[in-house]
Design brief:
It contains twelve helices and 19 strands. It is of the alpha/beta class. The protein has two domains: 99 residues, Golgi alpha-mannosidase II (Immunoglobulin-like), CATH 2.60.40.1180; 361 residues, Glycosidases (TIM Barrel), CATH 3.20.20.
Amino acid sequence: MKIQNSIILFCILISFSVQSQTSVPVISLNPNEIISGEFIGNGIEFSAYPHADTDDSEWGKLMTDKKWQQVFDRVSFIKPKIARVMDQANWRYLKGFDVSGNPIVDFESEQMKALYKLLDYCEKNKIIVILGEWGQPYKVHDTYLNLQNSFTGANDPKWIDLIVKNLNHLINIKKYSCIKYYNLVNEPNGYWATTDGDWQQWKEGVKMLHQAIGKAGLDKSISIIGPDATSYNNPKSKYEGLDWVKQTALQIPHLVSAYDVHDYPSKESIRSGEFQKTFEALVQFTDSTQRKPFILGELGIKGDSSSKEHLGDQFTSVDSQLSVYDYDYGVDMADALIQSMNSGFDAVIAWDLDDAMHTKDDKGDKHQLKRWGMFNSLGTELTNNSADENLRPWFYTWSIMTRYFSGDMAIVKINDLNFEKVRATAGVTKSGDFTIAVVNNSDKEARFIIRTKNMKLKSKLIKYLYSENNRPVNSKGYPVPSEKINLKDNGISVLIPAKSVILYTSYKK
């Protein structure tokens, strides 16, 4: 009787197991359903530490060779495919004006040498660079040298001439082939921009710069990216925020070789998926006019830094996102990146890498740090807090999703993923390598199978897991795989915990 009961129980368990397996949802990955066939890869905002790069800077030369090397080591793990390097003429090569009002330039200044250090790294590591200036020289700081009226705007021929001289030096003299795009004025539709939302001024400046680049024979090496707008609606502007992108596509598509936009969505819009809907429609619009690369040039999550008690220090500006210290920020940024890639963006750039790069209004006040980074290289020197130099949680997810989504991949659709707040994106190479990233921003685990029968699969995958209680790292704090997976039955069995991220890849790095 006991044997008979045991057999009955075994049969029940087997039946339950089969039913459980067959009831697990199956989603499909099809390499022929391409979202982006011009994918560049993801990257970082990367600045040359204007307050700490030379003996004459506001903080002195705090960025020593050792500090630079630590930054480069960390960036080398991230393996960005693209970097946005925004600067200012009067930080680097513009040293004043002669008695006739002509600019005095010095391309071998100590400040330029600091920029060369950064560009040398990008050149060596084949990182595409978007170079640009925050805005009209000397106007960024109203009191800087009392020369804020030395240029009349983005359409001032003197500034355009200065930009082209700098580009000629960088491309023809210094031989930087990594510089592919030029960004004229950061977020020109904003009230904080030197253009203050003046569409016509910016448009004229772009036209003049395009002509000057061609006349200098630089058009085979570098082109213009724009409009670099945000979703902010400036009442002084002829067009609302994201309409700047549409008008660029409609009015001056021949002047730009790539579109770009910035956004700082709320956590709620990311978690609900509304973020993707907004930009999916915008990318589809530009693709319908004239298809060209579309880059999300700054991505961060809207912050509330009204209370500095979160850190217990006096070094944080209101232009900060204190959630960078929190585990959840790593989930939310991964979610935003997945939605961005699924929207059709060809590259996504994180704001930003390092707290030590910028201060509020870039005036060099160490009590006004812009805390948005993956770390603070100068935690010891600026805040007397060496722990602030450690990697923050979101380094984990941004690095693996940048490292393993490469420029030789097409971003393809994943269908039938019908779990609330669970999203995924995938990249596939022609040789059959692939990367799949999955985020679960809900409060419960999700289980499903990713069908991969349409793909040329290799025998093993590596898996990275970012969860609150399990995110393996090495001695430097860099992510390491949680396991290796043998593929069976042309599918990947996924069990993703609540509030976590998983990345699968066959890509070797």
